[in-house]
Write a structure and sequence with these properties.
3 helices; three-stranded antiparallel sheet; 103 residues; alpha+beta; 2 domains
Amino acid sequence: MRKLSGKYSIDGERVVNTVSGEAIPDDEPVFLLRARDRLAVPALRVYLELCRAFACTAQHNVGVVECLKVFQDFRDKNPQLMKDPGSSLGTPGRTDYGPIGSR
């Protein structure tokens, strides 16, 4: 089983909740952010703010914070791998993404 995050893993062809073992149904859409996406860190920050505003469980919020840290660490250690969303080539050296990217 390949671990995708603290919460999900791949078991064969299925994505499963690592804790409960529940598989995501084939007909349920899934959205995936890669750490190399320049907007992934700001997107995770906004998601964390929403989780806090909607009083998600502390366990869930801790998981989001841990994911955010892993993404930030990847970004900081691999600036040459970062890519603009929708770009297969990226924009080497680009670091200014205005108010959203500077978060």
